[in-house]
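Technical note accompanying the year-one report. For the benefit of new consortium partners, we illustrate the data format agreed upon in the data management plan: each record pairs a sequence with a structure-token string. No post-processing was applied to the example shown here.
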Amino acid sequence: MIGSATICAVVAAPQAAEMRRELLHALRRTKLAELRLDWLSNDAEIGRFLQWLAAQPKQKATLIATCRRLDGGGRYKGSIAKQLFHLAEAIRAGCQWYDLEVETASLCPPELLDVLLGEGRQLRSAHFFKRMPKNLRRVAADLRRDAPDAIKIAAHCNSLADSLMLLRFARSQRNIVAIPLGDIAMPVRLLAPREGSALIYAPVENATAPGQVLLDEAISVYRADKVDRRTRVYGVIGDPIGHSLSPAMQNAGFQARRVNAVYLPFLVRDLKDFIGTVQPLGIRGFSVTIPHKERILRYLDRCDPLAEKIGAVNTVVVRGNGKLYGYNTDYVGVLRTLQNRIPLKGSRVLILGAGGVARAVAFAFAQAGAAVYVWARRIEKAKPLARAAGGQAIERKHLRTESFDAIVNATPVGMHPNISQSPLNANELNGRLVFDTIYRPRETKLLQLAARRGIQTVSGVDMFVAQGTAQWEIWTGQRAPHAAMRRAVVRALEREEKK
């Protein structure tokens, strides 16, 4: 339809020089790019960029010119006449397509567009940045007036169900680009070509719509350019989810073993909404993180006895007929991380927190023969977990006078972006080892405080990789490429630390 690629790089910058740099980078990753002329700061910058473009050798690529005006959701402040002039210049400079928003198209006689822009192919677009339109068929019919070469509908989706509805509609149409907007819709955007839409829009540097994934990430991490109907889909659900490095780790595993699969982050506020998309999207399995590790239990058809005893699930397998089976690999992660660092049997362990991770940690230590102590901000939360693990709850006022072989943080306190926080003060850290299950950042405030007191520290990276490789093996039935998956996590964390 619009070129041969499924990923359309979005080139958007305020200066012509930046646009040139972005375009050259984009064409090294894909052969389809949208040039957002309306992002350029003024008409002179648009002219400079198009003059440069016209002087370039002909590219084996498809270029789409966009100069969207303010009333159509863009940034161009000039008149319609100037807008059309820039689009005409873009076509002369080598753009084969132009995107014309319906707000402008409705004010222009088709004969005028044919005279000015007839050498280019028209993608007529409608954008709904705040809501999903009630009648998609009417929107499509309005867009197809005057017979454009293709149409585009971009709509904000408040749920995964909305995203699927938009893509199902696209499947019933011809020559259509359908774009679910919003953070909740992000994973569905990456699957859009196999679900009915023609393209995935991925910005080179500057996001031009909510829920976009940067071009390099879309290709390197998600291999979105290779996703097809045979691709197995996995994911992680949580709220928030943008911080998760699970996609980097799990997708690195798929790439290392050459498995045709993709692992996507799902921002899930409504579990029922997500469960309703498992079968339509063909999801084979998913990880579960905060705040759903305990809530997911009510949606499972069966649960591993240990996970059921822990009362928290972080891994789900989808089997025949959409049956959901739950497991807990946090338990495995704790044991693999600490068993070679301290003797677990007979040790005194303080666990901070009473949520899903804390439950896995508590049961891991209890099964290994340790004496378990649980502290939570509310003692009534700590007591049930302590009882279930055969340990005891402890109040904060006693922490300064008690000593432990290991102190384990199983709360989210100190997690990015709240990196200046610690669940305990330095004078409450009386132990031989402090282990923080948080892996982002690698050195949390808690670990910094412990290190200053000369206490051995353990980052959550080891546990994160251990539980993640266990998940990978449950889903695939293969031995996980541990080194490749750990390398992907460490590299991602190193990149963040350099920023």
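Partners are asked to follow this layout when depositing records. Residues 482-498 form the longest helix (17 residues).
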